[in-house]
Amino acid sequence: MSIFNQLLMVEDPRINRCKKFPLGYILTTVFTATLSGCSSWYEIEDYAEEYKDDLEALYERISGESSSWGTTRRWDYYTRSQPTMEVSLPSLRP
Predict the structure, then answer these.
(1) Region for residue 48 given its phi and psi (left: phi exceeds 0; alpha: psi -120 to 50; beta: otherwise)
(2) Which of 26, 39, 76, 91 is deepest in the core (most CB within 10 A)?
(3) Angstrom distance (rounded) from CA 26 to CA 20
């Protein structure tokens, strides 16, 4: 099993509505940036922007899924993973 597969196995503690990117993609980016000599979050951010296409291709190759969730995908993910809840709001009319 590769180190990248190990990164994909880390459980994501974030709440669903705050997820912009998959945790495995973030960890893969931080890991490769650190191996490339980045030592601060600013350098990691610059690295991620400069090598965005390569990082996306790497993540898609190791995980089999997209590295960036579009609006539709994100919405589908949220609706599948969240229980539905009925909310009744009071009427504002007298």
Answers:
(1) alpha
(2) 26
(3) 10
